[in-house]
């Protein structure tokens, strides 16, 4: 069945499914990036990852990429710069903190986005935003502060990364709802611009004696290359294209609820594959963080009232 033939509810369900797929794939990317950083520099990792993904998508979707509008290219360029910011802080953060912490802290965009909307767009936040921010602050403190009450360097970088993630959400939402743009083209061209920007950074900051960024050996660095291949296909080429399309079919609230589970996926993957075990205080902080995200998106007080009312009606 073609998407055009689906009802509004059918498109919403498809959008929810695509957002869930993107969330799950991005949740695994922290573990894969951590493994790839054993052989690649932070900028080189993103440059190779996004360059390969862009090449794959151009080959696969070439007919859909012809004659992009100026608006599409403009938004893609700006979002590509934001991706440079995001993955610079994310990769350097991963070098200095755990996979679990990186996953939880980099996904605070759900809480930060309303703050950015207030500061730059003049939108008055709801009361629940302030509650979520307080809970978020408590969770971050428990997760990141050392016994000397100083945040770890890698955790601070991941917090800065979350600012970029919030900007990415807002820019993508505005871009895909602009009638002059094409969502699929934005999904592909943002990857291309990010590849261009991070390649320049890799040549400037990570060049070896040959003048080229250093790449791991295919034999001794097989693990890094395997992680790179999975990052390229599963965590870049697929989710970055389906996410802009999905945002047109599912509501912002539903998408936010689904994406609030991304740090949970990152933590589960880190536990089972990286064998990371956090302290009891850190797990408590992570739980409070997840609750703050759900509180932000689900409107829990009204949800509880509706459930209670339904229960009373049944009895």
Question: Can you give a write-up of this model?
Answer:
The structure is a single chain. This protein is mostly helical. It has one domain (8-314). The chain is built from 14 helices and no strands. Helix 2 (42-61) crosses helix 9 (222-237) and helix 8 (183-205) packs antiparallel against helix 10. It is globular, with a radius of gyration of 20 Å.
The low-confidence runs, each spanning 5 or more residues with pLDDT under 50, are none
Summarize the main sheet: none
Q: Rounded to an integer, what's the Rg over CA atoms?
A: 20 Å
Structural class given helices, strands, pairing? mainly alpha
Quick take:
The protein is an all-alpha fold and 315 residues long. The protein contains 14 helices and no strands.
Q: Helices and strands in order, then pairings?
A:
Layout: H1 8-36, H2 42-61, H3 70-94, H4 99-105, H5 109-121, H6 127-144, H7 153-176, H8 183-205, H9 222-237, H10 239-249, H11 252-259, H12 262-273, H13 280-298, H14 300-314
Helix pairs in contact: 1-4, 1-9, 1-10, 1-11, 1-12, 2-3, 2-8, 2-9, 3-7, 3-8, 4-7, 4-12, 5-6, 5-7, 6-13, 8-10, 11-13
Key terms for this structure?
mainly alpha, 14 helices
